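We treat protein structure as text, and this decision shapes the records that our systems exchange. We quote a single record here, exactly as it is kept in our systems:
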Amino acid sequence: MALIYCVEDDDGIRELISCALKSGGYEVKAFPKAKPFYEEIRNKEPSLVLLDIMLPDEDGYSILSKLKKDSHTQDVPVIMLTAKSSELDKVSGLEMGADDYITKPFGVMELLSRIKAVLRRAGKQNAEADVIEEQGVSLDASRRICSYNGQEVVLTYKEFELLMYLMRHKSIAVSRDKLMEMVWGYEFAGETRTVDMHIKTLRQKLESAGCTDLIKTVRGIGYKI
């Protein structure tokens, strides 16, 4: 089981990430600032580090620089988490050795996909495709391909994320609010009608391929497989 360290000072975001990673099958240790993170990483090297840039005691760029200069941690993959979205901020982190960069707000499913991709590139996770199948529908999470009985169904990024989350939680009625949180991001301020519109187009594409009744509407709650 891959061990992931998350360095994030916002209590709510740190808790959300921790819960999501645990549900995704990862071991997680979370830290609100740099000092306890340094103490722990000296004792045990993680498979990957999620590193926020804006921290109370030291900024993420400084932490990243130290990790990459230390022979014991220089090969540990790092994904930067930040509210900053400028191209310069992203380039700075990547040039300093970060493996990926996610701008807040982000969907939990996107975060899990990015983590899998980075771990796979780093050789810290089995490179075998993560394939989910249900009622003839197959989702290849690593290649992001959806097919029905061998016929490819072209989906948008959000449609794929929606279907993947529902299939991973089959038989469970998932609320629109939960889907908004997991797919669009914990701070997304849009209306849940966004979910309904994406479900509508997702159903249309599946039905065009011959797949009907995969996604059920649960009145007053949301949707389920």
In short: The helical segments are 11-23, 34-43, 60-69, 87-95, 108-121, 157-168, 176-184, 193-208. The longest strand covers residues 3-7. Residues 193-208 form the longest helix (16 residues). The mean pLDDT is 88.
